[in-house]
Specification:
Order of helices and strands: EHEHEHEEHEHEEHEHH
Number of strands: 9
CATH topology: Rossmann fold
Shape: globular
Largest sheet: 7 strands, parallel
Number of helices: 8
Strand content: 5-15%
Distance between the termini: 43 Å
Bound molecules: NADP nicotinamide-adenine-dinucleotide phosphate
Structural class: alpha/beta
Radius of gyration: 18 Å
Number of domains: 1
CATH class: Alpha Beta
Amino acid sequence: MSARDGWALVTGASSGIGESFARLLAARGRNVILVARSEEMLQKLRGELTSRHGVRAEVAACDLSAPGAAGQLAKTLGSRGLRPVELLINNAGSGARGEFHALPLDGQEAMLRLNIQSLVELTYLLLPQMVEARRGGIVNVSSLTSFQPVPYAALYAASKAFVTSFSLGLAEELRPSGIPVVTLCPGGTRTNFVTIGQPPSARRFPGGRQDPDEVAALGLRQLERGGGLVVPRLVNKATVFAQRFLPLELVPRLAAKLQKP
Ligand SMILES: NC(=O)c1ccc[n+]([C@@H]2O[C@H](COP(=O)([O-])OP(=O)(O)OC[C@H]3O[C@@H](n4cnc5c(N)ncnc54)[C@H](OP(=O)(O)O)[C@@H]3O)[C@@H](O)[C@H]2O)c1
């Protein structure tokens, strides 16, 4: 991606991996649209990116777990003249940890709308312009958990399994159009990642806690290489590879021992 005139839209840009994406893109001269709920944090980042890198940065604060939010966001982009979006970073996400039946259903449904529905809708709404221009790219931030069922984070892992499957399928569909799709599957990363039902101090990171800048940089590198699947860190790659040889039901049984709250 060499174009500097189109917009890059980053969801979940107020912290963690999304903030790293926004910073790296602005440093490369990209104009960025920053999306998350925390408007104040986004405005602060906007000011910093414009003054440091001389790019345009715009804030579009919204709750992507609200029904219809992605459609509303796409409309806002149109009315504010923030088109075309040439690079879509679908990064915003939340988690849920604990016994599925014991966690509040409304919170879990909001997670599904954020992790799945708004990602799908934003992609659906912004992709046609990329295909028509034969120019653009998408990064979908999935997770290492997308490769295996995870007891006590069953719905979160299932939501990320959706993201990985959807992204890899879409990538092949878009190959003839020259629109690269990156499926980024980080393991434990040092961010503010919020999981319903768990204090942050209680989290376990099997692959260690990676720097979010590193994760975002790997995603952008893969985008420049024409898209594909990224599983950061050797230990995570090895885990994904090894579990292919185990019976499908055995992996969650082993994971349950590690994950039980
Ligand atoms: N950290 C990890 O260990 C890890 C591992 C694998 C995958 N991931 C994935 O990486 C992605 C980024 O997470 P992160 O680790 O960088 O966590 P993070 O620091 O908590 O960032 C999450 C971002 O998403 C935004 N967000 C959350 N709920 C939102 C909503 N309802 N509407 C709009 N924006 C919302 C947050 O901003 P506001 O709160 O301001 O809305 C924040 O900017 C997620 O998709 C996550 O599943 C993380």
